[in-house]
Amino acid sequence: MGEAPGARSASTGAPSLGGGPRTMGMERAINPTPWEGARAGLEAPPLDGDYSAEVCIVGAGVAGMSAACLLAEAGRFVVVLDAGPMGDGESARTTAHLSSVPDGGYAPLVRTHGEAAARRFAESHAAAIRQVERWVEQEQIRCGFERVPGYLFGTARAVRRELRAAQAAGLHGVEAVTTVPGLAGEPEGALCFPRQAQIHPLRYLQGLRAMLRRRGGLLFGHTAVREAHGGPQGQVFTEGGHVVKARHLLITTHTPFVDRWAIHDRQVPHRTYAIGARLPPGALPRALWWDLEAPPHYARLRSGEGGETLIVGGEDHRAGGADDAAERFARLEAWARAWFPHVGEITHRWSGQILEPHDGLALIGQNPGDVGNVAIATGFGGLGMTHGTLAGLLLRDHVLGHPNRWASLYDPSRPRVAGPRWLRENLRTAACYAAHLRPAPCVSEADIAPGSGGVMRRGAALRAVYRDAAGAYHVCSAICPHQHGVVEWNALEKTWECPCHGARFAPTGEVLSGPASEGLAVDNGLDAVEPEE
Q1: Which of 78, 354, 415, 497 has its CA 20 to 30 A from that of 114?
Q2: CA 530 from chain center: how many Å?
Q3: CB 513 within 8 A of CB 352
Q4: Are 22 and 34 in contact (CB under 8 A)?
């Protein structure tokens, strides 16, 4: 519902960690979001030397900036590093719902973790929305924050089950409704969740940046992180050769690059899609809408200088599991027109990546198996805005040594819930490695059109071959350096992505987002492929 609809030298595989991809500008030109006009003020200067700080945060999205501002409020000196402009990763691709309703509703959460855990989930996400509201009012951030009702609808049976679960989670203000404002027709069942919210994400990040600056924190952009190590004196090494030393390291990139194994079998990468459509002024009330389909859909209204836009998201699938973006966008449009008949021209189409934890709970806290001064935040699913803010609250208390009643719920080292979903997703991950043995999708370079890519086999080697617009070929290994999955071509984003754990790479192999910390190896051992005449 929130994050991403959701989106983090070739020969050496130099990493581009610490925030958004450095080639995102290309992708935005293809798939613009409704937030594009607010990019002014998000640039930050690159790191210009070595620094020492109390806290170093890698990643300047909602999670990283929330943690930075909260720690700066507490009087800590904070340095934030990002590989691109602030918020250039998946925070720029959110549909910007602020919701206390988990993906799929409360029923799966109660079933998996029990009523007490569901109550803590509800409390923590409500607190995250209040924190955003506090900052908006206190700092006078002009980001369109507003409280709105949220409507969840589906079959009568599913909605009854969801009402019981929501009430068990302590949400006694939730009520069943027979009609849903704004929808054409009446769904079988529906619930109203009061006091949800929505926001302009990039204008909000601009406000957080200004707040951090006023409180003495430092933000550096275009500063890719090569590696980070904890210990009595944590150290962050950048691609530019500079080092930041800090007592605490917080890794708030989309997925952590400091961990190779412990986190990545607890979550699965999904690609999610969104569209924006014109609406006549006043055609819809201010609200959020979600359904209980599989995959789910969600919508919200945005007002701006160009009029009103209905933002619709959903149609998720496992990363690398499909390359049919046109069909996904068409289904989103059909869903929107079925429920909201005033929908006009489709003005925006984009996609992003979300990380779905197997047990439905984000992973926020000390990095498993690491020293105590290295903490992570990942696994936000479709609730990136609220999870990111909640991550700030939890990481602040982690650094300050304050108890937090929600910390154990999101602890990355909590016991695994080895239920059917965990087994199913890990079997799918294992199946991804079968690509090492299957025939490659492309037989020859001629199968690859200009501006696209494909995986080819030459002997035992799998090659990721990109053919640029001029017809020149760029050849890399197709093996992800993280855990050796075989990458697949994403035609919409024009990127390589690993279906195992979600690492993403530019067409020519540079790493765009973790968990890989280096790019695809350039395949210099193969004969050069010349462009066709």
Answers
A1: 354
A2: 38
A3: no
A4: no
Q: How sure is the predictor about 426, in pLDDT bands with cuts at 50, 70 and 90?
A: low
Q: Does residue 515 have a cis bond before it (omega within 30 degrees)? A: yes
Please give the average per-residue pLDDT across 395-411, as a whole number: 97
Partnered with residue 314 across adjacent β-strands are: 273, 297
Judged by DSSP in three states, 258 sits in coil
pLDDT of 27 > 80? The answer is: no
Q: Which residues of 80-90 are buried (b: 16+ CB within 10 A; e: fewer)?
A: bbbbbbbbbbb
> Residue 436: pLDDT band by 50, 70, 90 thresholds?
low
Q: Both tokens of residue 298? A: 């969600």
Spatial contact of 101 and 2, defined as CB atoms under 8 Å apart: no
The distance in angstroms from the start CA to the end CA of the chain is 48
CB 273 within 8 A of CB 329: yes
- The more confident residue out of 44 and 7 is 44
- The DSSP string of 451-501 is TEEEEEEETTEEEEEEE-TTS-EEEEESB-TTT-PBPEEETTTTEEE-TTT
H or E segment to which residue 346 belongs: strand 346-357
SS3 399: helix
Residue 10 above 60 pLDDT? no
Mean pLDDT of 40-56: 92
Minimal CA–CA distance to 121: which of 361, 380, 414, 378?
361
How far apart CA 523 and CA 414 sit, in angstroms, is 41
Using the predicted structure, report yes or no on whether residue 9 has a pLDDT greater than 50. no
pLDDT at 144 over 80: yes
Phi-psi region of 387 (alpha: psi -120 to 50; beta: other; left: phi over 0): alpha
pLDDT in tens, 479-500: 998 888 899 999 998 999 998 8
- Average pLDDT score, the chain: 87
Helices (H), 140-220: 156-168, 201-214
d(CA 362, CA 429): 19
Helix axes 115-139, 156-168, angle to 10 degrees: 80
